[in-house]
Amino acid sequence: GTLTELDARVSVCRACPRLVAWREEVAVTKRRAFAGEPYWGRPIPGWGDPEPRVLIVGLAPAAHGGNRTGRIFTGDRSGDWLFASLHRVGLAAQATSVHAGDGQRLLGGRMVAAVRCAPPANKPTTQERDTCAPWLEEELRLVLPSVRAIVALGSYGWDATLRTLAALRAQVPRPRPKFGHGVDATLPKPSGGTFHLLGSFHPSQQNTFTGRLTEPMLDAVMARAKEVSDV
Ligand code: SF4
């Protein structure tokens, strides 16, 4: 398969009844500020360079962000932080990501969500996580050959990446490297060679409002990703 085929198949996935109901309900009721806009209301495909050097793995699309705009991290507060940081270090063409036609580009990078449909309260169940895992496996199988760094956002993105590598039969070391902000683990690819798995706190409002994650902290991880990837 190709990424285009993967995107076509994932965009019509209805495997999780609770998430299908939620993503579609949100797309009909909408948030007042976006009442006049169409909502995507479907699974969010990976976005960016088809042969990325840097891959960013997030949790799931936001109900009024990616689930509205159809592009991951686009049109929500987490994305505001993420794209501003990527732009500061030279991994994104623009500092903001507002809608799918805004001209934003990732420079040598790609983004994907571990769970591709917006979950209520941003919390997928374990069953939903596992149901969506094959899509991430397929995406990583296709893009890992060019990847030099994966930035995992939060322990959710970190664990999803490690589980996916194991599913792809990469020789993940035991004990598995533990998530932390700024952790840099060298891991084997299934097809040979290695890449850096970099941990970052998720730029959720919970982390950014409280100061648990600051702009310099996020920039440091993104700059490291750029440095080890030769972008
Ligand atoms: Fe399909 Fe994943 Fe959405 Fe579940 S979360 S419906 S598996 S795309």
Structural features, described:
The chain has 231 residues and is α/β, with parallel strands linked by helices. It has a single domain (3-229), classed as Uracil-DNA Glycosylase, subunit E, CATH 3.40.470.10. It has 8 helices and 6 strands, in the order H-H-E-E-H-H-E-H-E-H-E-E-H-H. It has helices spanning 3-10, 17-29, 66-69, 77-89, 126-143, 154-167, 205-209, 215-229, and strands spanning 47-48, 54-58, 109-113, 149-153, 184-188, 194-200. It has a 6-stranded mixed beta sheet with strand order 1-3-2-4-6-5. It starts with a helix and ends with a helix. Iron/sulfur cluster is lined by residues 10, 13-16, 19-20, 43, 115-117, 128, 131-132, 135.
| Structure ligands | iron/sulfur cluster
The total strand number stands at 6
- Look up the CATH topology: Uracil-DNA Glycosylase, subunit E
Number of helices: 8
Domain Uracil-DNA glycosylase-like: 45-222
Protein name: Type-5 uracil-DNA glycosylase
Family: Belongs to the uracil-DNA glycosylase (UDG) superfamily. Type 5 (UDGb) family.
Organism: Mumia zhuanghuii
